[in-house]
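Fold this sequence, please.
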Amino acid sequence: MTVRGAGETSLPQFAEVVVIGGGVIGVSCAFRLAEAGVDVLLLERDGLGEGSTAKAAGGIRSSFTKPVNAELGLRGLAEYSAFRERFGVEIDFRRDGYLYLITDPADVPAIGHCAELQRAHGVRSYLLDPAEVRDVLPLLEPDGVVAALWSPDDAKATPDAVVQGYARVARACGAQLRTGVEVTGIERDGDALTGVRTTAGFVRTGAVVCAAGAWSGRVGELAGLDLPVRPFRRQVVFTGPVPGLPESVPLTIELPSAFYFHREGAGLAMSFCEDDGFPGFGTRYEAGEWLPRLAELAGRRIPAVLDAGIRTAWAGLYEMTPDRNQIIGESVLLSRFFYATGFSGHGFQMGPATGELVRDLYLGRPTAVDVAELDVRRFAAAGTAPAEHHIV
């Protein structure tokens, strides 16, 4: 007997592991588990990669101030650089680098620490003075910049292509990926998982991976758990052609304003972080006071963009945790409930490593990266780990 699912032929009655969420984290987990011989069912309410992954900038970096984040980013760089050769999928991987512009002298020590951390991992990383910044990006206006961090090995790729690539190899390894199916309940018997209720029926399982991104808090509630992941809107505009735009433009971030831009076609994609305000799932683009502020930031740094006009704009969701660091681990309150979420804007670049981590946690293996500090229990402690300094 099978249970009919929306847009698919059926849902199985049983799966060894159910992965909830079809973004880059979910499909990476599904692939790694299936590759290891685990019977995997991935459930996605919409289409694969249509949540936060669809709105991701596609940056892949090692330039973090926390060692665990740098290590996860480096593993992402390694996998994405070989993605086409390994999986036969073109993801438009480009090493255009990351360029951090520092306008507050108080941020210089953190940037120096970041450069040291990268170099300790064998990554090229350079502290630049304001005059050297224009050698990297001639269109840039460096007024007010006191220092910069240049990481030429960092890169960019296309998130949707990555999702489809992981989905293809996950299916080839035996994973079942079902779209148009929403999880409506998680059944448990004491501290043991027994199954997942969905809009397409019930699936018995003894293990769940929550990879639902901005919706992970709700998934946690279904299991009677607190996953402190909240959704916050982020807006992006895409310009028309920018005169004199070089072929290679690093993903450039100004701190502390968090104004950033990168090349998108003949123009630029640009954004800056709004005041988080109140969490919510709304993704309606609203220019309001945000667009004039963006224009002010852009005009100060890249004056040529002011003649380019706006081609299109949209809004997406960030999945934020209180300390802006992701949560990865297994619940101590519900056996075999794993979580990989709360990446606070860094999920795409950490997707490859996260799939490996979840696989090893499920199989009881030592993980390649020590993620003990990313356990959700840190929020119940007297204090939390320091936040990642470089939040985009």
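The longest strand covers residues 310-320. The longest helix spans residues 347-363.
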